[in-house]
Amino acid sequence: MSILVLSVVLIAGLLLMTIFTKDLRRALETSYSVEAFYAADSAMEWQLYGYFNSGVDLNEINPKMTNDTSFDYSTSTNQIKTIGIKGEVRREIATNF
User: In the chain, what are the domain boundaries?
Assistant: First the structure.
């Protein structure tokens, strides 16, 4: 009887731990999402500055991220796309001309 009760308590504990772990991860990813978005926004402003000020070397004014975020970008003739990265969260901003 005690093994049955301990098994039920163990299963209930594991179920609650799984639920709380998912909620904690979502809470962390929400704040990471905001930071990733602002990293993408900073990279977009950097790219737009270079687009509208031809003759500016963008490598000289590369944005420095101080909050463990990074960015990636791609440009084409009519689109600029930037991706902000924080942990495993990625947020993208695209501008079409």
Answer: 2-96
